[in-house]
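Running this now, will post back.
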Amino acid sequence: MQAAMSAEPEYDEYEWPRPPQGGYTADDLDRLPNLPPHTELIDGSLVFAAPQTNFHMRMVDVLLTHLRRCAPPEVAVIREMTVTLGHHDRLEPNIMLVRTDADTGPDQTTYHPEDVLLAAEVVSPDSIARDREAKPRKYAAAGIPHFWRVENDGGRAIVYVFELEPATRTYAPVSIHHDQLKLTTPFPLDIPLTEVQP
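Update: finished.
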């Protein structure tokens, strides 16, 4: 009888980062080697992104295409880049609208919240609590005026639109969109959400 062969898991060869006392800082994301793409920092802890779904990829593409078509020259549409909200928080919205003059050059890795007009999150199965609760709470506390949350309803996109209530630094729900996202703020736009369906 042949003995069973045991194989060592591949992840045993990887040296996982060990958090420093007090947690990581926003600047650590630029210094830590070999971090996976789209790593975020929430409350001093590294958060790694799971592989994205087809819906997620298509939805981000639809929003990017139409936002770039509608955006005025003073607004840039940014995909999957971080915003540093504080010493221990550096989040990566799926899409941001930022002031064009906040671009500091080709080596830029993050934006400041005062430069961001909109943060948009397409909810993934692994990020439901973060995208519905933790991240919008932090975006609002940092003063980002607009937030969109996009949900997958059986392959159909639903966009929940929120605006900042400045006195409380919390988001107030404004509207819910199923087939068409038509808004006048932060600038006039009209996005057919049905384009996300295969």
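The chain is about 20% helix and 35% strand. More later if anyone needs it.
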